[in-house]
TrEMBL record:
Binding site for chlorophyll a: 73, 76, 167, 170, 172, 184
Top-level taxonomic group: Eukaryota
Pfam family, one: Chloroa_b-bind
Location in or out of the cell: Plastid, Chloroplast
Keyword annotations: Chlorophyll, Chloroplast, Chromophore, Photosynthesis, Plastid
GO molecular function: chlorophyll binding
Plastid found in the keyword field: yes
Species this chain originates from: Porphyridium purpureum (Red alga)
Primary localisation category: plastid
Protein known as: Chlorophyll a-b binding protein of LHCII type III, chloroplastic
InterPro entries: Chloro_AB-bd_pln, Chloroa_b-bind
GO annotation terms (biological process): photosynthesis, light harvesting
Length: 203
């Protein structure tokens, strides 16, 4: 009788453990991305990096280093912020300039840049890539952090993370904005400011 009771107890304990393990596995399997709730959260996007909300619909983090991806995102975001500003500045200042810098359309303005200007642009881009190549590809440094903080805004870790998140969000917004500016320019033939002043629905 004692053997029977003991065996029954062990069976119940084993079933209980199996149930708990099953539930834990189910929860792990069903963990969803904060950014896209109907997709599973990417395994490598665990919230360690500032601004990580599990957005990876193409699954790039499964095959590429997360730090490399973040460095690329920051680089594109910074370029996009400059590009979005450049769209507006080009439209405002170009008519007031002289020589090859009078074209308000950013796309047409590309063809007005002198050859010497292109040499300078390519040289500057190459220099930046050479200086940051090692850190970006071997993950030895914090992504996108090249120690550029002339105002000393990031001395405190919490403040630094706050500004890092702000930069990341503004960069993401700028990438969307620049794309919208470009499509608008191509479709309507009008600059951002002119389009706002003469707004008319396309349909």
């Amino acid at each position: 009788m004692a053997a029977f009771v003991s065996g029954f107890g062990l069976a119940r304990a084993s079933a209980g453990r199996s149930s708990v393990c099953s539930k834990n596995a189910h929860v792990t399997m069903m963990a969803k991305s904060k950014a896209i709730p109907f997709l599973e959260a990417p395994a490598k996007l665990d919230g360690t990096l500032v601004g990580d909300v599990g957005f990876d619909p193409l699954g790039l983090s499964a095959t590429l280093d997360v730090k490399y991806l973040r460095a690329a995102e920051l680089k594109h975001g910074r370029i996009a912020m400059l590009a979005a500003l450049g769209f507006v500045v080009q439209e405002i200042l170009a008519p007031k300039q002289s020589g090859p810098f009078t074209e308000p359309d950013p796309f047409l303005a590309i063809y007005k840049v002198p050859v010497e200007g292109w040499y300078q642009i390519i040289a500057a881009i190459s220099l930046v890539e050479l200086v940051t190549f090692k850190e970006n590809y071997d993950g030895s440094a914090e992504p996108g952090n090249f120690g550029f903080d002339p105002l000393g805004l990031g001395k405190d870790k919490s403040v630094f993370d706050k500004y890092a998140l702000s930069e990341l969000k503004n960069g993401r917004l700028a990438m969307i904005a620049w794309t919208a500016f470009a499509i608008q320019q191509i479709v309507t033939g009008k600059g951002v400011i002119k389009q706002l002043m003469e707004f008319q629905p396309l349909m």
